[in-house]
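Dear colleague,

Following up on Tuesday's group meeting, I ran the structure prediction for the two-component complex that the binding team flagged. I've pasted the input sequences exactly as they went in, so you can double-check that nothing got truncated or mislabelled along the way. The structure tokens for the whole assembly follow below. Feel free to forward this to whoever is handling the docking comparison.

Inputs:
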Amino acid sequence: MIILWTDALIYLLVITLLIFAFMVSRKAQFKRPLKKIYDSKTGMVSLIVLVFFVIIGLLDSVHFKSTETRTHEIISLLDYWAKPLRERGEKTYSAPFSAYLYSKEMITLADGSTKWGYPRLKFAGSHLQNPEAEGLRDVLTKAAIGFGKGAGLVILFMVLLWSSFHDRHKVLFKQPTGKAIVLVVFMLVSMSYMLIYLSAYYHVLGTDKVGEDVFYQAIKSIRTGLVIGSLTTMIMLPMAIVFGIMAGFFRGWVDDVIQYVYTTLNSIPGVLLIAASILMVQVYMSNHAEDFNSLIVRSDMRLLFLCLILGVTSWTGLCRMLRAETLKLREMEYVQAAQALGVRQGTILARHILPNVMHIVLISVVLDFSSLVLAEAVLSYINIGVDPTTYSWGNMINGARLEMARDPVVWWSLLASFVFMFSLVLAANLFADSVRNAFDPRRAEQGG
Amino acid sequence: MIQYILRRGLYALPLLMGVNILTFVLFFVVNSPDDMARMQLGHKHVTEQAVQNWKHQHGYDLPLLWNQQAENSQKVTQTIFYQKSLSLFIFDFGLSESGRNIGTDIKQRMWPSLSIALPSLIVGLMVNISVALMMVLFRNSYLEFGSIVLCVILMSISSLFYIIGGQFFIGKLLKLVPISGYDTGLSAIKFLILPVLIGVVSGIGSGARWYRTLFLEEVEKDYVRTARAKGLTETQVLFKHVLKNAMIPILTGVVVVLPLLFMGSLIMESFFSIPGLGSYTIEAINRQDFAIVRSMVFLGSVLYILGLLMTDISYTFVDPRVRLS
């Protein structure tokens, strides 16, 4: 097993999150907001979709050296399972569910004569004798079989779960969100099983310029999106929390210095700062090429650098909010009382200030996530995003953008990245809304 | 007033100095000029002489901060920091790596940027405010619920898809406007319609939601209840009282971005091949032209700080309670 830098940070993040979740669930003051999220349909549904994405991302974060191929390339668990998708590349573009190549070329027929036409694909639909006649029916039957198998799997699993929590099933169905949760899990698992089943026979979302399966690319991009959304936050949070609280609590010259630093950083347009830093990273990497010999290590480092840079440019907003809130909190009676009693300042910060700004941190983390995922696509377009060899939705869009000029249009790469990105960002946005509704004290008072 | 502006101007100096030092560290200390030369000249088979020549040609062959060999005051002036970084303060951007004068390029290219950014801002502002007002007017109805859902959906679509989709459907399929390009004078309008339209549409989601929260905050206040108690209709309350008071945060939010409009939008301009500062920056990034990127970073922060100053001043105009001190 090989642990890349981002992998290690992801594991760290997951462990921190679990500890945090454990601590939060035991604190009395979080009971009500958590219950509120649990009771909101959109909140739970979007959470499940997010968890689904996260699981795929985590599977893609367990790397090891492949023992089967000669090259000993580094692959992930997801790559290992998606081996057919990875290896069954075609020559060039092919449409979704098509059995033919997208471009015409010379085909040698069985009797030795040649013909100018669309050749059959090497792998997709190769089990069909006559794709025109039986193609659609075959796709539909295979889809139905796949869906049925997936559905069977979910039902089996749920029955097992049901019998083990025999008296708790009532609780699940009494919850207003219970049915929605069951339905979403059912649909997600069945649909993904169907897609996996189908992709054994076809290229579900077609292939790209070099004949790589687009469905595979879109799935691989999930990890990149999640890494950018979450690692950036992890890098930015400590800075924002420490500096924000310190500026608000100690005031005086500490406040002046921290305010100066974040106003300076803020005054540089974000994209330009990112561009400048990434350019410098590029120069550094090309001059120290020997440290980044493996392709996957290099793209991984670049991804990490990108997160680092995004983190440095984005902590200022949260820092400012925390500073304002701390300024308010430090005048509160209970903080004044603690000070009068001679409680040490570190203890006051940890016990009285920090827990009371946590809701701001939580809300801004969830809100930032979706904007970071969207930012990745834009940055990749300007060539200052992830490494061009990394799978990411931005790179997919970038590659497919020029093909819109073709006739007929190559639309599937765009569609794939659109669907995946949209569902991740939409789920994140909806979840952010319900988190904000639950944790923002001003909204809580309105009862809405 | 003038005294206040002057003092704020002086406050801006240390900020700009900070930006200057930051870019200096990024561009000259993290990677030495030698690294940059190798990057520009390619990696293999570069002789030491070629690197020296390149550095001399671009004025990078000086010491970073302190020139030991030079005479008195030239000890400070004959350095990279003085010549490349400090000169930015008098807006002397110097030459780009390809030898063009950056200052004249910027002067030329900021007008196309402005001609697309300003209409986008104004139209977008009006559309967003109307949508937000409508949502507040019909609050707690299906219309509001539908609009909120629509806003979240619009927000979740990457701006790249708006541009690609807009170019494809309106430019290519319907052939209403040219897909991309630019022209001088009035004939530029037909090139500007699509970028402005796309800019407005892609901003509705987050914009309308933001204004809605502003309006909702105002609606809760006491004066609104008083206005209703006087017997004003809901529309009168909304347009006469709420809108007026909510204009304060809206206007100040707009003022802060006004100077930055000159910088243009990076992706819009490069997709529609509009020769503005945004596409200028992107070209520079792609060509790895550090001189241009450095100048744009500085220019951007100057404009941002100008925006902050204008915001503070505009507060006094829209809200008579605020006094400059």
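Residues 214-250 of chain A form the longest helix (37 residues).

Cheers,
M.
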